[in-house]
Amino acid sequence: MSLKDILSPFYVWKRAFEKPYTTANPLTDRPGAPRYRGFHDNDMEKCIGCGTCADICQNAAIDMVPVEGIQTSKEDSGLRPKIDYGRCCWCALCVDICTTNSLNMTREYTWVDTDPDKFRILAGAQENFWTGKETGYKLGEGYKLLDHDRITMPMVDPKEGIKSFIELVKGYSKEQAIKEADRCVQCGLCIATCPAHMDIPNYIKAIREDNIPEAVRILYETNPMSATCGRICTHRCEEVCSIGVNGDPIAIRWLKRYIIDQVDRKEIAKILRNEFKPNGKKVAVIGAGPAGLSAAYYLTTVGYSVTIFETNEKAGGMVRYGIPEYRMPYEQLDKDIDAILDMGVELKTGVEIGVTESFDDIYKNYDAVFLSVGLQDSYSLSITGEHLPGVIPGIQLLDDVTKGQIPDLGKKVIVIGGGNTAMDAARTARRLAANVTILYRRREEDMPADQEEIEEAKREGVKFITRAIPVHIDLGENKKIILHWNKAEMLDQGPGKRPKPVLIVGEAYTEAVDTVISAIGQSPIYKLLPEEIGSQIKFKREKVITDKYGQTSLPKIFAGGDIVNDIADAISAIADGHRAAQGIDLYLSKQVKVK
Amino acid sequence: MFTPDRSKYPEIVDGKAVIDLDSGKYLKLWQGPQHPGVTGNMSLELIVCGDEVVDCKTHVGYLHRGFEKLMERRKFIQNFPIVCRICVPEPDTNEYLYAAAVEEVAGIKIPEQAKWLRTLNMEMSRLTSYLMWIGGHAGAFGLGPIGQWAVTHRDYMLDLFEEWTGGRVYHMYMIPGGVRNILPDGFDRRLEDTLQKIEKLMSEIEKVMLNNAVFKMRAVGLGIITKDMIDRYGVVGPIARAAGMKRDVRKNSPYLMYEHLDFDIITGTKSDAYERLLVRFREMFQSIDLIRQIMKYIDNSKNIHTKLPNVLHWKIPAGETYVKAESTRGEYGYFVVTDGSELPRRVYVRGPSYSHAVALLEDLIINVNIADVAGLMTSLHTYPPEIER
Predict the structure, then answer these.
(1) How far apart are CA B184 and CA A195, in angstroms?
(2) Chain B residues with CB inside 8 Å of A6's CB?
(3) Domains of chain B, with CATH numbers?
């Protein structure tokens, strides 16, 4: 003990003369820091209602609820996060995981109210005292919880690819598939968009868990042609994938393909339930395309005896005869078809209705008929010279190649059109050693073909001329075909409408080629229907009008596929087949017109 | 073998104190759970004779929140915001240890810059925790103003945490895989300003508390922990160091970037409340020095986070690990067991206060003046939240 120890504490008095530390008005003079984790703010326009914020919240403080003024659409669940501030722990994991970066936090942190129910807030939708205030916490720099980069799909080199019809996409390995499947946040927006409403999040989950039998079972619940759809599906699910908002969407189509590639015909049969109690009723399916095969499969699973009638030598429809082998190898299509036939479906090929078999007989002998004949005819170019030899429809070229009748296209080929058939025809022509140019009346961004088809065609050396309208076709020297075309400009048709191409005067060009392939769309042929029946079925333009179960105005006849839906792709046809199977079952078990 | 001095009262029969409350000689007195002289929510069931404590039973259970069980029902990422709540005054140790344990058992390497930022966070957190403690310790001895100064300066540190992490008390910054953000612009300058303020405060505390005759009379000789008690009671941290033990996880088994930092283990000899204050007081300066050393390595342009598997369905292969770190109370540990599922099978939290505040306190408190009980407790620097999890 020293004198110093007695005197030293009196130093405390010095502090009495110092400026106080306190803030006079803490509620107003003490704003939160720029990164402060205060009350949430959600950009209603950016938010797609994926619900990932609610999934990660460890307090279950977030509920996804419908909001007035927000419509449910393909890329928006219509729900928005409602935050319970009695539960929230302000960890901001919801902000970190937000797929659209719409959810952030403000710097506001004080709120006094006597009504406890007021503390449940639809962030961003309800006016609050923090509405419009400065943003506080948002996703930090150099850190993110979501993986935005897709696992690159191994592909055959384009230079090698055009030498043969070898399949270009090699498929994921197990490690790659599990890694890609891991990126999914299981929001389920894809389910609503898929025409067949496939349970995508759960089959992706089964991949993650390496449970292939479960994955196959899930696939067959809504789609009996996964080897096909895993390759050539138009995958609109990927367009609405929430991960796709800020990154690459999950490779849903290729993950489906991965699942089905892991099992062979025998294993599929083992996984699927294939013992059904026959109910003694018979259904005829006309056309063995995706719609017909799908309807046949689902009808069989509920005990119907199904016979498919097909004109061609083999089943598969447009998937076989309209899609080239480098995209859709025939053995993979056969795998899908065999699995369906293994269920006990009877397939009669080489049957031409009206020639070898009468429609009336089928109509009489079967309890219901499912019509899925597809679009067999090619749209006409409606220009002079289109009937010259050397001007062929795209689907004919694809059909011939499938049947092994390789045509001589010559050295120089022009393909008219911008859809997937145009791309298929152009790339098939490339494989037949021709120099190929695609002529399209609108701009590249207007092309209905899948973006990856366009890109792959370019990689394979297909040239593109856009805003080019064919005017007429002449026969030139040395059997050359002269295509006259005119440059077009795009005229705006107002909001929500496609701009219209209009010829530019004085910008006419000619092109001397060996073959012109027209691929501007297809139309149906209904000549198989007898007059009496055809007149009773209602049509709108060229499409058959059906109810939601595919039932036509003739109760016994159901229809689906490209002759019914406007999208005219495989997955929509498969969905039509499934719905029609449900409709036929409802109709035959109740004998009433289903609505 | 340590035996408390029971020479005055009461009589010991068969190793137990014979306390007859009806004799009028003793009084049973509850200190806590709501009592400013008890750190946190625990209570002491004291038997006093006059103004001296002759027997004590510690009671915990007022603060049980079931964190460990809760974590078995949460995904790995969802536990990250929970763990910091285990200990209010120093949450960052929990954050770091949970993240480190998960990373170790999942085999994830984090970027070096993330390690530096974590080290910075841990040292700032140590200084913040010590500031709160020194305020409480001073208050327990009746030196109220020091408590106000210290807590104010703790708030300056919390301001820094707020602008850095977005939260004042619960920073939720050290996420598995790394950290959540880089330092904001101008942070180094504001940090240095605050460190200088704290240094000034420390020099004032030295004058008013360390060189205070009254405080010295009460603290010197209070709660002496002999060397042989150290291992028997599982004493760790500054308390063990004040008894001359060179025990510091940062030095003994370096984690994060401590091996790249220049510092020594601070020890004392006398092992009483005053010596423990001295050790911690010097460690506060040491922390300030370490923060300045660490700031030289901070580079905002470097990677701070390793890409994790999708945290919504992150499964960690079966395994177990124990990771430890030096908190202001000593060795803090997390034992994490995984079974290959999306949830941890078991998360065990080892808080150093457990051994200090229950068994050790019960022995040290005997024959202590009732007015010094609070001072004794704060000199052990116990945080009941980490006892109960």
Answers:
(1) 48
(2) 213
(3) 11-59 (no CATH), 67-388 (1.10.645.10)
